[in-house]
Design brief:
By secondary structure, this protein is α+β, with helices and mostly antiparallel strands. The chain folds into two domains: 173 residues, no CATH class; 216 residues, no CATH class. The chain is 51% helix and 12% strand. It has a three-stranded antiparallel β-sheet with strand order 5-6-7. Strands 12-13-14 form a three-stranded antiparallel β-sheet, covered by helices on one side. A two-stranded antiparallel sheet has the order 1-2. Helix 4 crosses helix 5 and helix 7 runs antiparallel to helix 8. It is elongated, with a radius of gyration of 37 Å. It binds zinc ion. The site of zinc ion has 8 residues, from helix 17. Zinc ion binds next to helix 17.
């Protein structure tokens, strides 16, 4: 029988002698790379042997306490640490993993295979490193009490195959092995995912923080995975991907080229950051939600917030209103935007502060008007803006103050952001024979702005399906 100790001594001497002669710096690139691989292969074999010997020492120490005493150690772990000149934690890791990969002998003298036989085989052959082996053994051990043994064995075999590679696929990097192990564990142990989800449910939160000097409210929170995914999807789906479109200019007609130029100019005019755009999408979503929740009560207006404003402020277009429930004043401009979509209800007070008279809601587009405008405009009418019709607000093209009527021929769809930026931004609006037109970046002449595919002559009352979708 070959003596492993003699083999190790001879191999050590060989390696020492060879290392003394070779020059690493003089090695060719291919030689260098080949050596890195070969070193690892030999290292894996030795690592496997280290585990096996540490575990065997621990097994014998449990049967014979003198073994530990002879080493002057306090425990088997301590003794292995001393013998190998390693830390106790490293010694413990070797012993634990070594036991998981060691076969044993039953009282009747039969050999009992290792608990993790596939991993043990791969480590012994030097195909699997102990880092990946440790990952697989540790994670599968955690779920083993709850998982059927055959399922566990199958998972172990598949993970070893992924980690070591086979004829068709190369070995996985250890980081990827960790991902795969987590996937397998989640798959075979549904009970393991549930407690984590329960913890997440407990810790979900959305908090309104302090208000900055500018009146911005900070929000903080932790969203459940599905909620986060929904919000992310809604936000990102409605933010146009920036960047050039690589279309072959020679393959385009003159008209298509001009159209592209116009779109590019409109895109450049939108200087919002991605974070700002996400905020604006959220504004549009909240608008739409408010409209749905309260449509039966307030004629399709989003009444989630109430602003109190003096009649003179609205008439003069100067001053401020106050958001219900806050001390934050809002500009007359903001009041106008909310009035456009939410309407105005006049309340006359006596000098003493009692209610003298209460008017009905004015200047608010009815759901029927809104549906007609949606059928015509098909979404925020600003070129390049992807916000859909359901999330858009109806804007008075000629302001109410200047005599603009609350009529479909004076209402157009604008998203949350374009509604608020329309007075200061680069876009101008005009109704021509009941059709919205825009002028702005890349659109130097009045351009039909509706996003319906149908041409104007084909305009018709909204079909039944459109009613259902939007109403
Ligand atoms: Zn828009």
């Amino acid at each position: 029988m070959t003596n492993f100790r003699q083999t190790l001594v001879a191999m050590g001497a060989d390696v020492r002698a060879t290392l003394g002669e070779v020059s690493i710096g003089g090695a060719s690139d291919s030689e260098l790379m080949a050596c890195i691989g070969e070193l690892e292969a030999v290292g894996r074999l030795l690592d496997g042997a280290r585990l096996a010997y540490a575990a065997e020492f621990d097994r014998r120490a449990a049967l014979d306490g003198d073994l530990v005493v002879a080493q002057g150690g306090r425990s088997a772990v301590d003794s292995v640490a001393k013998l190998a000149s390693i830390s106790e934690s490293a010694a413990k890791r070797r012993i634990v993993l070594g036991h998981a990969l060691a076969s044993s002998v039953s009282f009747s003298g039969e050999t009992i295979p290792p608990r993790f036989e596939s991993v043990a085989d791969a480590v012994r052959d030097g195909r699997l490193g102990i880092e990946a082996a440790g990952l697989i053994v540790t994670q599968l051990s955690k779920v083993s009490p709850r998982v059927d043994d055959a399922v566990l064995r199958a998972a172990e075999a598949s993970l070893v195959e992924l980690a070591t590679g086979d004829g068709t696929a190369p070995p996985l990097a250890v980081d990827l092995v960790a991902d795969q192990v987590a996937l397998f564990v989640a798959r075979i142990d549904p009970d393991g995912v549930r407690p984590r989800e329960e913890r997440a449910r407990q810790n979900r939160a959305l908090t309104f923080g302090r208000v900055t000097a500018d009146g911005l409210t900070t929000i903080r929170g932790a969203l459940m995975p599905v909620t986060a995914a929904q919000l992310r999807r809604l936000c990102d789906a409605h933010i146009r991907a920036a960047g050039p479109q690589f279309l072959d200019p020679d393959g385009l007609s003159e008209a298509e080229r001009e159209q592209l130029d116009r779109e590019a100019a409109a895109d450049r005019a939108d200087t919002r950051s991605r974070a700002q755009k996400r905020h604006d999408v959220l504004g549009s979503i909240l608008d739409a939600a408010a409209r749905v929740a309260d449509a039966p009560h307030l004629a399709g207006a989003p009444p989630a917030v109430i602003i109190t404003v003096a009649a003179a402020v609205l008439e003069e277009g100067r001053g401020a209103g106050f958001l219900d429930g806050t001390r934050t004043p809002v500009s007359e401009e903001t009041v106008e935007h909310l009035a456009d979509t939410g309407g105005v209800q006049p309340v006359t007070l006596t000098p003493g502060g009692a209610i003298l008279s209460l008017g009905s809601v004015q200047r608010c587009f009815t759901p029927m008007q809104r549906r007609a405008i949606i059928a015509r405009d098909g979404g925020c009418i600003i070129p390049g803006c992807p916000i859909p019709a359901g999330w858009s607000e109806v804007h008075h093209v000629i302001p109410h103050r200047d005599g603009g009527a609350t009529h479909v021929d004076n209402g157009v769809l604008l998203c949350w952001w374009h509604h608020r930026g329309i007075d200061s931004g680069p876009w101008r609006l005009q109704m021509q024979r009941g059709v919205p037109h825009v002028r702005g970046p890349g659109h130097y002449e009045w351009t039909v702005a509706t996003k319906r595919r149908a041409s104007i002559t084909e305009l018709r009352p909204p079909s039944r399906s459109e009613h259902r979708r939007t109403g």
